[in-house]
Amino acid sequence: MNILYIIGNGLDIAHHMKTSYQDFFKYYLALPSDDYKIDSMKHDIKSHRYETWADLEIGLGQYSSHCINKGEFLRCLLDIKSNLKTYLQKESEKITGYSLKSTSSFLNLGSFLDPEPKSRYDYYVGRFASNKRLDVNIMTFNYTSTLEWLFDFSGGAKALAPNTWLESIQHVHGVLDNMMVMGVNDSDQIANTSFNTDEDVMEDFVKPEYNDACMNNKNKVCESLIRKADLIVLYGTSLGKSDEKWWKLIGQRMSLENNYPLLVFLPYDEKKDQAAEPNHLRRWVMQSVREIKEKFAIQLDDKVLASRICVAFNKRLFNISKDAQKTVMTR
Questions:
Q1: Do residues 331 and 147 lie in contact, with contact meaning Cβ atoms separated by under 8 Å?
Q2: Domain 2-14+96-178+214-322, CATH 3.30.420 — does that match?
Q3: What is the mean pLDDT of the chain?
Q4: pLDDT value of position 218
């Protein structure tokens, strides 16, 4: 059985890192700059009050219309990325105080689910009982090496449990010290149409184009992981438009008549307190199903799609503990 975890910024936030867009922008806004264009960009970002990293990336695509030439635009991008790198390097040091206590919560997804979705999950997983090997791959949108730290993973397959292997961790957007990309999903999300055919802008600001230009084979590897996954787990990601490529590819798999994966969606929303309002659970689940249907471009009836998705709110995927023995990881 092949399990693919797709992990976003919620992972780092759950481990006490201040890596939300709002946290970074407070830091970034306070930095002095003698470049009028960068100051203009900061003012524009502040005026829109973005909530997520994906919002910022789409917003930067819109801001391109305020740039006379690509030099101005690329200068702004470089300033954000270089300062983001400095900020995240400091925040990522916080993970060194933790280690993965066990893989039980990470692997036993059924423990997160309420009785009805758990019965569907158990039935689906039971179909693979004859094949006892479990292959795990991870796609992360984070620049930080939190996952490598938690799993003590340095590449190559690693045993997590009997017959269970962590095969790879794929950083879709690069890592802090190598091929870090911030941008949009495609050229249509760049408001300045004069940039849409410019190789420098496309290869620096359109994520799939950036990976292709780096010849890192990352797009093909991640596409293959999605196509072969039997179970896909979404954790800590906002499903933003700047990563539509991946959502639509999952949507294509989910729309198949047969051989579709089961999708486990683990969103975090502090406004949805299941313990306080359990009677609202079905409504919240269907809201999540409709969000996935729209963002993944899935052409299925809501009830049919809901039968292929298991949703659990505000869960922690990893069971971590303080570990005073670990030292700072160098990568």
A1: no
A2: no
A3: 91
A4: 92
